[in-house]
Amino acid sequence: MERKKLGNTGVLIPEVGIGTWKMVGNEKNDIEALRYGMSKGMNLIDTAEMYGNEDMVGDAIHGQERPFIATKVSPNNFRYDDVIKACDRSLSKLRVKQIDLYQLHWPNHSIHIKETMQAMEQLVKDGKIKYIGVSNFNLKELKEAQSVMKSSDIVSNQVEYSILVRDVEKDMLDYCTKNKITLIAYSPLARGALFEKKYGKLLELLDNIGKKHSKTASQVALNWLIDKEPVIAIPKASSKRHIDQNAGASGWKLDTKELSAIEDFLLEWAEGP
Ligand SMILES: NC(=O)c1ccc[n+]([C@@H]2O[C@H](COP(=O)([O-])OP(=O)(O)OC[C@H]3O[C@@H](n4cnc5c(N)ncnc54)[C@H](OP(=O)(O)O)[C@@H]3O)[C@@H](O)[C@H]2O)c1
């Protein structure tokens, strides 16, 4: 598993981590999946207080080599005291002394970002969290959040990004590259939609490109994402087959011709008939 620097820190994180949204209700299976993923080098686990599974993640990582833990505070907890309380709850559920990356899950325009960021910075000072990230922030929101901070930097923005959903390419990808902010691509397999029949032609292309590298279409789709400098991906997978594939999306490179073939296809496709 290749690693990338987290934001402007020297900390190395895997370029493919593990998402946990919807991992609820089958604890034994989920714990097994997370531990198997970690054994394959995907030792970044992304969760959120909203997912209702921090307890399960805590159980999965207990007694294991410590993975990088990313969790999120919900927008309804963005008042100063609520951020602190939410973090304490997450720490207790995850059974860790420090959260590696604490992210604001979505912007909340009804609470001034300064109040929220002050709480986040206090959590860093108190040693309860190591790094601050945001999620689903547009460029204006990201810049505003950074501008009200005094002692820390925003090291990451977690946003939807896949071969099917490329909104971040408008401005966020460039901004993150230039400002050394990690772009954590969520739903990197388009929540599984990529494998629907309607995307057959794209899958065929990815499949053909993959064959030359002995890789699957899903591995090509993930590799296409992490080929971009600031991007890491956090696919969610429950089966060993999927986990193996996702881990194998790292450690090799699509060549320029292959990247162009994908780009040309997507361009033609976006333009329609
Ligand atoms: N910040 C946010 O607002 C936000 C929003 C959405 C998601 N996220 C984060 O991003 C993570 C990933 O996103 P996601 O769960 O929405 O969707 P995703 O990772 O794009 O897709 C997950 C789906 O793809 C399937 N899959 C996984 N690996 C596969 C492979 N190699 N080949 C074929 N299918 C594969 C999974 O099946 P199996 O489970 O059956 O293996 C599952 O059905 C979440 O779990 C969460 O941590 C964050």
Show the helix and strand layout.
Elements: E1 3-5, E2 12-14, E3 18-19, H1 27-39, E4 44-46, H2 54-61, E5 68-73, H3 80-94, E6 99-104, H4 113-125, E7 129-135, H5 139-147, E8 154-160, H6 172-178, E9 182-186, H7 200-212, H8 217-226, E10 231-233, H9 240-247, H10 256-271
Parallel strand pairs: 3-4, 4-5, 5-6, 6-7, 7-8, 8-9, 9-10
Antiparallel strand pairs: 1-2
Helix pairs in contact: 1-2, 2-3, 3-4, 7-8, 7-10
Bound molecules: NADP nicotinamide-adenine-dinucleotide phosphate.
Provide a quick synopsis of the model.
With 273 residues, this protein is α/β, with parallel strands linked by helices.
Structure description:
There is one protein chain. The chain has one domain: NADP-dependent oxidoreductase domain (TIM Barrel, Alpha-Beta Barrel), CATH 3.20.20.100. 41% of the residues lie in helices and 16% in strands. The strands form 2 sheets. It has an 8-stranded parallel beta sheet. A two-stranded antiparallel ribbon has the order 1-2. The protein contains 10 helices and 10 strands. The N and C termini lie far apart (40 Å). The chain has 273 residues and is of the alpha/beta class. NADP nicotinamide-adenine-dinucleotide phosphate binds next to helix 9.
Summarize this structure as a short list of keywords or feature phrases:
two-stranded antiparallel sheet; TIM Barrel; binds NADP nicotinamide-adenine-dinucleotide phosphate; alpha/beta; eight-stranded parallel beta sheet; 273 residues
